[in-house]
Design brief:
Layout: E1 2-9, E2 14-22, E3 25-30, E4 41-43, E5 48-51, E6 53-58, E7 60-61, E8 64-65, H1 71-82, E9 86-92, H2 98-108, E10 114-115, E11 121-128, H3 150-157, E12 163-168, H4 175-185, E13 188-191, H5 198-207, E14 211-212, E15 223-225, E16 228-230, H6 233-239, E17 244-248, H7 256-266, E18 271-274, E19 288-291, E20 294-298, E21 303-305, H8 318-327, H9 333-339, H10 342-348, E22 365-368, E23 374-379, E24 382-386
Parallel strand pairs: 1-4, 1-5, 6-9, 9-11, 11-12, 12-13, 13-14, 14-17, 17-18
Antiparallel strand pairs: 1-2, 2-3, 5-22, 7-8, 10-11, 15-16, 19-20, 20-21, 22-23, 23-24
Length: about 375
């Protein structure tokens, strides 16, 4: 198959031309705008063709939640987000009892690296909590927050690379051992829902901490101890090159000026766009839902805790996150796309497989127009959605 008359979004530029697929892989890039003779061609009419988006942090959509641990829930979630340009995603848990987290891992295992129906590929499970700071619980249920114990987390890591990431508070007793185990497993060790200062974070970094969860949200900032200042997680994430910064790109969790500050600090390779979408994504404003006992409600632009005390994840899609970062925060489009694709692939250690438009990589592609409407999505060269 051949895509013609496209604006190909490469990691550093947009190039007019065509792209050919063979056996589910990108076979050829060309500056030609017309199809080769005899090719099965699709004219994109000058539309953008980008690598499929990779969402490292997504809980649900359309009333379905990862914690349901059912194939039907996973289908609902992945099909909704695929229509927003996501071709690979990590289903994300919330702070919960051990048995509930194990139930999710067991349900996802047979679907690992597969798509269900016309949904995005499930690349694994991001375990967000339960090893968080009580003072930064946010929309996580504080009833289930606890310190990491090897007898528990070793059960999770028996699933190997199915565990893409664990979010934890590095200041909690036992966190350093877990960070080391995660990195040995090939998983991301991400600091989030944390009150840590640099006294906790320096040893965590040495142990392998390599990401910050939904940066700026539910994390510590500068504090004073007598006349002396200590950096919090926000400052640490911006200062350390080893830390990839997750960004909920709805402009509500993080306003444009802070997005620009983050990108200025981290550079184009140091930020990864996520949705952190909860089960309210895709539902009308005013819809009530629960996050494992925490009451929440959708608003016009976000999900919030029902008591008004904070946000409860987003209702975002990846295409909308890319659009907002580009149009509202002034980030060049190839950079915004890289933050939704290649940067995430590198965190997963899978950049040779997907994450950019390059010969030999999986043909995971999203076609969208100037108004950022998704027109088509392909996984391994197979069309999954046509808008």
């Amino acid at each position: 198959m051949q895509f013609t008359n496209a604006r190909l979004i490469l990691p550093d530029e947009i190039r007019r031309g065509s792209l050919a697929i063979r056996n589910g892989r990108i076979a050829r890039l060309s500056s030609a705008t017309k199809p080769a003779r005899g090719a099965d061609a699709l004219d994109l009419k000058g539309g953008f063709l980008a690598p499929g988006f990779i969402d490292l942090h997504v809980h649900g959509a359309m009333g379905a939640d990862t914690m349901e641990a059912s194939e039907q829930a996973f289908r609902t979630i992945t099909e909704f987000h695929l229509r927003g340009g996501t071709t690979s995603m990590a289903l994300t848990t919330v702070t919960a009892p051990e048995a509930d987290i194990l139930r999710v891992l067991a349900a996802v295992k047979p679907l690992h690296n597969r798509s269900v129906g016309n949904g995005a590929r499930i690349i694994g499970v991001h375990i967000e909590g339960p090893y968080l700071a009580l003072g930064k619980a946010g929309a996580q249920n504080p009833k289930f927050i606890r310190n990491p114990e090897p007898g528990e987390w070793r059960k999770y890591l028996r699933y190997g690379k199915l565990v893409t990431e664990v979010t934890l508070a590095p200041e909690n007793p036992g966190s350093i051992a877990l960070i080391k185990a995660l990195r040995k497993n090939g998983s991301i060790a991400s600091a989030g829902h944390t009150d840590a200062n640099d006294e906790h974070l320096v040893p965590a970094l040495a142990a392998g901490l390599n990401q910050s969860t939904h940066t700026f949200n539910a994390m510590s900032t500068i504090t004073k101890r007598g006349p002396y200042r200590l950096a919090g997680m926000i400052e640490f994430a911006m200062a350390q090159d080893e830390i990839m910064a997750e960004l909920i790109a709805d402009l509500i969790h993080v306003p444009p000026i802070l997005i620009r500050m983050l990108i200025n600090a981290k550079g184009h390779d140091g930020v990864v766009i996520i949705t952190d979408a909860t089960c309210g994504a895709g539902l009308p404003a005013g819809t009530k839902f629960k996050l494992l006992g925490v009451d929440a409600v959708t608003t016009e632009h976000v999900a919030a805790m029902a008591d008004g005390t904070g946000l409860a994840g987003s209702t975002l899609t990846m295409i909308e996150g890319v659009r907002r970062v580009h149009q509202k925060a002034g980030v060049p489009l190839p950079v915004a796309v890289r933050m939704a694709t290649l940067n995430a692939a590198r965190q997963l250690g899978r950049e040779k497989e997907f994450g950019s438009i390059a010969v030999g990589k999986r043909a995971d592609l999203v076609w969208f127009d100037d108004k950022f409407r998704v027109r088509g999505v392909w996984i391994d060269g197979e069309m999954k959605f046509r808008g």
